[in-house]
Amino acid sequence: MAVPATMRAVEITKPGGPEVLAVCERRVPVPQAGQVLIEVAFAGVNRPDALQRAGAYAPPPSASPLPGLEAAGRIAAVGPGVAEWKVGDEVCALLPGGGYAEYALAPAAHALPVPKGMGLREAACLPETFFTVWTNVFERGGLTAGERFLVHGGSSGIGTTAIQLAHAFGARVFTTAGSAEKCTACLTLGAERAVNYREEDFVAVLKAEGGANLILDMVGGDYLPRNVQALADDGRLVQIAFLSGPKVELNFAQVMARRLTITGSTLRPQSDLAKARIARALRETVWPLIEAGRIAPVMDSEFPLAEAAAAHARIESSGHVGKIVLKVR
Q: What was the pLDDT predicted at 13?
């Protein structure tokens, strides 16, 4: 595959709103040992991209400064020592950055084959959310069949993924969303109960069921003490973001008395080895479910690469249901 010297990309011209995203020309990166170069067809748009654009989520020192944490396309070149992929293979990959471009680098171990029967558009929506949900819900959170699981933001990319995976593995799934339409979408994905947080109190709903064994939250703020109230004894709370802020007053006496666990993680700073381990687990455990048609990304909208600013405005409006993608080529 002939690889050009330069490529189109979207850069962050300065910290700010969606309008600071601009199309630029960059040198095509060269894969180093253990890396692959992907000719990007589609790139996923995620909340961390918007945080990076706003200056609140700096990329690791070794990562591309361009936004974009997941993409799908074809292998254009492989670096030294890469044996598992060859030029022309269709893959989706978790990226350290740089997905908003015609070519992007990824560690070879963070790439996964495009599931059989799935297009590149849908495959671009798999890595960021599936890596995040798998590690936080099933590994860190320890969710098992029959447990009561509450995920906030059920209509988001993370939420729609978490609902489907938890349901597929036999959990009782509860979720929150901000409209009747979004609640209906969550129910169709496998949620047993979808709580419109504008009209109902999720704490009361979960308490009536005996409490949540596990909660996955990206809201933070005043949800933190309410989450603790909604947990069953010995319950676990996993925090993955703080859309409403990370600081709150919390009475930890009930955490001790009821043997609760509060934990959390972010994906991007984790080591390459940790992400490779997650990729292997997904390929072995989740990819067969995708190929069997039991799980699929929920698609919200598609924007051309040059309209990345509009895609960011869409995700920050919270009006979306599921994933947003950029069409790169």
A: 98
CATH code, 6-126+298-327: 3.90.180.10
The gap from C-alpha 270 to its chain's centroid, in whole angstroms, comes to 14
Second CATH level (architecture) for the domain 130-264: 3-Layer(aba) Sandwich (3.40)
Task: Give the per-residue pLDDT at 62.
Answer: 87
DSSP secondary-structure letter at 250?
Answer: -
Please give the Cα distance from 263 to 265 (Å, whole number): 7
Query: Is 172:149 a contact under the CB 8 Å cutoff?
Result: yes
Domain ranges for the chain: 6-126+298-327, 130-264
Q: Confidence class of residue 239 from pLDDT cuts 50, 70 and 90?
A: very high
Question: Residues 67-78, buried b or exposed e (16+ Cβ, 10 A)?
Answer: bbbbbbbbbbbb
> Which residues, 6+ apart, have CB-to-CB distance to 317 below 8 Å?
none
Strand pairing class (148-151; 212-217): parallel
| Separation CA 123–CA 135 (nearest Å) | 19
Cβ(203)–Cβ(226) below 8 Å = yes
The pLDDT value recorded for residue 318 is 84
For residue 219, report the phi and psi dihedrals to the nearest 5 degrees: -90, -50
